[in-house]
Amino acid sequence: MERLRRASGKSPWALAACVLVVGGLLTAFAPRPYVGLPLLAASPLMAGATLSFRTALGFACVAVAASVGLDLYRGRPASALWVDLAVIGVIGALALAVNALVESQRRDLAQARGIAEAVQRAVLPQPPDRVGPLAVASGYIAAQAEARIGGDLFAVQDTPFGIRMIIGDVRGKGLQAVAAVSVAIGAFRQEAEYARDLAALAERLDGALAREAGRGLSQDIATEAFVTALLVEVSARGDVVRLLNRGHPAPYLVHGGRLTRLDTGVPQLPLGMGLTGLAPGPEPAQVDVLPLPVGALLLLVTDGVTEARNGEGLFYDPCSSCLAGRGFDTPESLVRALTADVHRWTGGGQQDDMAILAVARKPAAVPSPPARDRPR
């Protein structure tokens, strides 16, 4: 109801007033009695469901006064006057009770959403705008809109080995996946500082998820510990990118007006499946290495983007979308454009959690010369 109040402005007030006026006119001039009584009673009920308590009380009082005045105007008997008064009064009281209930639910919802936002900030903090040579931007839309948190995750961390990133998707969505997200993010924050390479980092994350599921401390974690993840490492200079994909949608490179999907060579199993560091076969975990030119953007997404469907049931493909051929100066502009395009593609429907992480390599800042060396 609060959303209706904000979106509609004065329209609920105008509609309730219109119903009240029409009910009064019918009561005054209709050839038969009681014709306008339902509308007179409906007016405070509409106000109670959509407007403030004080406004609803005002409509109830006006409806009662109008009923009494119109009955006297038409010379109705005292018994009819009391019946009309009782009907309008009871429905007006119900309208005020409905208003109090709606307001209480609105406060409870606002409190729940505030708690969900606090949990999301604690479990999934917003990455900094800049990490080393990279500019960073992110976006997150949960499938359960009122929860504002789901099963997707991302993190960016500056480590002794370079800037390391993770974007992942816990099996499932909503609040049931929060426990597994917290385990995955916590393990990444800890292990990214010490794992010698991405393969070792994936092994440690796999082990952390397996241990948590094996403890049986939380049924949610044991059920949702299946995590697809893309691990990324950018060198300290920002010119080299290493990718290790554990069953996650491929990243994209945006450079020179082109948007290219970076498919990995050997598919890897998701984290938490108990097959640490192994591909589906004897092949070891493969890390893909590619250059990152100055001004290029690296786009990481979850399957909420790549599996978004339009009205015909077709999946969204960034490479064939309106983003292809466009240039983006900042990661923020890329995240905004992608979010808007997915929203357009689905017609506003959100079928799954959607996380977006974009980074751009910026030119290294040139240090200013000392004051005595500056030209005068």
Helix and strand arrangement:
Blueprint (H helix, E strand, L loop, with lengths): L1 H7 L2 H19 L7 H14 L2 H21 L4 H46 L6 E2 L2 E8 L10 E8 L2 E9 L7 H14 L6 H18 L3 H6 L2 E8 L5 E7 L5 E4 L2 E4 L26 E4 L5 E5 L1 H4 L24 H16 L7 E8 L15
Antiparallel strand pairs: 1-2, 2-11, 3-4, 4-5, 5-6, 6-9, 7-8, 7-10, 10-11
Descriptive report:
This protein is of the alpha+beta class and 376 residues long. It folds into two domains: 2-116, no CATH class; 124-361, PPM-type phosphatase domain (Phosphatase 2c, domain 1), CATH 3.60.40. The chain has ten helices and eleven strands. The chain has helices spanning 2-8, 11-29, 37-50, 53-73, 78-123, 178-191, 198-215, 219-224, 303-306, 331-346, and strands at residues 130-131, 134-141, 152-159, 162-170, 227-234, 240-246, 252-255, 258-261, 288-291, 297-301, 354-361. The strands form two sheets. Strands 1-2-11-10-7-8 form a six-stranded antiparallel β-sheet. It has a five-stranded antiparallel β-sheet with strand order 3-4-5-6-9, with helices on one face. It is elongated, with a radius of gyration of 30 Å. The model is unreliable at 1-9, 217-224 and 277-282 (pLDDT under 50).
